[in-house]
Each structure stands twice: as structure tokens, then as C-alpha cells.
Amino acid sequence: MVDELFDALLRALGAHALWYAPPRPGPPLPRTTMFVEPDVPIDPLSAQIVTADQLAAGLVPPSARVRLVFVADAARSSPDDAPAGAAVIATDLAPVTLCNRVAEVLRAERDELRAAQDTQRLLVALLTGGPEARRRALSQLPAPSDPEAAYTNVVVIEAGSRGARSTAEPGLRAVFPEAAILRIGDRLVVLQPERTRYARLERTQKEGLTRLLDEIDGRAAVGGNAREREVLDIPFAIASHILYVSARIPRLRPRRVYTQDEYGIYYVLGLIQEQFRQRFGRDDPLSLIHPGMVALIRYDREHRTDLRETLFMYLAYDRNLKMTAERMFSHRNTVYNKLRRIRQILDEDLEDPKLRFSLQFSHLLITYLGERVPAEW
Which residues of 287-319 are buried (b: 16+ CB within 10 A; e: fewer)? Predict the structure, then answer.
């Protein structure tokens, strides 16, 4: 926001802006000087214009933090003439004319900022509100700035601490310069416009996001694309649930960025759990687990083995013995012997694709339920 405001002020002054100096320490400025005194950082909603005479007369608290200075009599000034921490713009305009120009820019920036805040408020309602709130938001939202970017990729970010969250937003704006960035609860949400339906994060975006997450000890989940604004709440819900699951299931491999194509299945499992809770008054749909998987769980508990995990890896890698052994850091013969025991326990044909799907689904459901799986199994 600070750089954008500086640029707008310089454009408004045009050739009357003689030079510009970034913030630096220096001696007091001449009396015929104009200050823009905002909150930190410069915010058009709270910016004020005061003269040095007003400052000397005590009309502005001496302790006020000056962030931008306009020097009207540039002939008697230099880039060194700036109070500590303030930027300075020299101009040949008379103070009254300069004040009018600056006030006009601040009004325009104030209107633009308010419009952006209204848009953010409507987007938050679209993601989190009820049906009526979402209908109102859709009717009031302005049209997208890029009509060809018909899709929106939703990314939810969770920082490691409250302090880290305050520093994360500028970093996200650098990684996603075209995106809308929202603050919802303790999380930040990126709405990245895309031109294709199945667009993923670009390599540079994913690398930049990963570096930022390393700095703030955070995690992010990519919920996928939505074509219509009406369904933006779906990828938002998916991404939020993925973050929730990644924190509560220790079996999942820790990472900085989780994606819907890898972890979206856990949102489906959450929907199944919610449906069981609503219909049957319980949230452990264990009756959906294949009996053969129950037998493997019992065997693992009695013999302290990992046959269930071995079977899942074997099926996940399309029954490739070599890749399964590599992924489990085991010798091929060890995995082979485990698979032979698994076949004996199951007493079913693993060539059956329906059986393989049922076993994989059962494994994922057990992983998702975690401690809800009875100890007597």
C-alpha cells in the first residue's frame, strides 16, 4: 500500500516532483514543508496533511510519526533534509496547490481502499456465510478484473504463530500479486485467478510459497479450482479440512504444502463421518471397513507387525514389489513374505479391482478415524 500511494502521489505531481528520497535520518526540514502523517504503514483512510507551521504551533503532536514529507521550497532543501524514518518528495508547487493535489490523491486512494475492503468483506461472506449471506455477496460483488481468468484457485495458509501471521500477508502478495488475500479467523486465504480449469500452482509460486512457509513455520493447503463464484466455498472447505486433518493425523507425512489431488480424499471421509453423525448419532463409520482389513488390524496388534501398511503401499504402487520395498525401506524378500502372509489372512484374490479399492478405502478410513478404532479389534 505504501509504494502504491507513493506512485500515485508522484504521478499526480508529474513534472512538479523534482526529486524523491527514500526514508533516512536527517536534520529538520525548512518551515515551508508539508507532512503526510498516516498511521504506520501509510493508509489513505487515516492520512492527514499538516504544515510545518502547524506542527510548530502544537496542532500536531510532536511525537507523531512522519512517513512522507513534501518540500515545497526545493531550492533550499536536499535529499538529506528529512526527519528520521521519513521519505521526502521535493516539488516547486506552492503549498496550497500542493495541498490540493495531495488531498485529491488521498481521496482517490481512500475510495479505492474502501472499495477493496468492501470486496474482501463480500468474499469472506461468500466463503463462510450462510445461503442468504452468500446470495447477497454474489449480488454485490464487482465483476472480475480479468474476464478471461474464469477460474479461481483457493489456497488456505496457517502460520505457526500470531506474530508470523502479521508478517505473512506481505510475503503472500509478493508470491501471488494478482490474487485477493483474505484474513479469515487465524488463517489467510488466497484467491488466485486462473485461466484454465485444472491449473495448479506454478513452480515459482509453489517455491515462493514454500520459502514463506518455512519462514513463518506455516502450512498451506490448495483446495483446487472453482469456475463459478457460487461454489468458491467448496475448495475453501476442502483446503481448510485438509489443514485440520494434516494436524491431527500423525501418520501423514509432514510437509509445507498439501494439495487437493493428494489429500482431498480425507475431505470425503469427513463428509462420510458427518453423515453418520447426523443419521445414526455416532461419528465412527466402522461398519464400512472391509472384514479382511479388520483381520489384518488384529494380526498386527497381536504380532506387532505392519501388514496393513504393507498392503496399502503395495496397492498404492500398483502391486509393484520393487517400488513397495523401496518406499518401505525394506528388502524385497521381506515385503514378499509379508504379502504372502497377507494373502493367507485375507483368503481373497487381490487381482479383483473391487477388492483392492475396498481395502484401500478401508485403510484410509481407519487412518482418518485414528483413535476411534476400538482396541478390541
Answer: eebbebbbbbbebbeeeeeebbbbbbbbbebee
Q: Is residue 144 part of a domain?
A: no
Residues 251, 345, single domain; the answer is no
CA distance 65 to 219: 35
Is the pLDDT score of 22 beyond 70?
A: no
In this structure, are 64 and 28 located in the same domain?
yes
244 half-sphere exposure, CB direction, 13 A CA radius: 13
Quote the domain boundaries for residue 299: 286-372
Beta bridge partners of 50: 35
Residue 31 has pLDDT above 50, yes or no: no
Please state the domain count of the chain.
3
Give domain status of residue 232, yes or no: yes
For residues 155 and 254, state if they share a domain. Answer: yes
- Residue 135 within a domain: no
**Which distant-in-sequence residues (6+ apart) come within 8 Å of 50 by Cβ?**
34, 35, 37, 59, 60
Q: For the segment 100-140, what is each residue's pLDDT rounded down to a tens digit?
A: 787 788 788 778 878 888 999 999 999 999 999 999 999 99
Residues 332 and 234 in one domain: no
Question: Is 377 within a domain?
Answer: no
- Structure confidence at residue 107 (pLDDT): 80
Give 310-320 pLDDT, tens digit per residue.
999 999 999 99
Grid cell digits, residue 128? 463462510
Among 263, 295, 327, the domain boundary falls at: 263
Last residue of a domain, one of 87, 108, 129: 108
Q: For 212-241, what is each residue's pLDDT tens digit?
A: 999 999 999 999 888 888 899 999 999 999
pTM (2 decimals)?
0.72
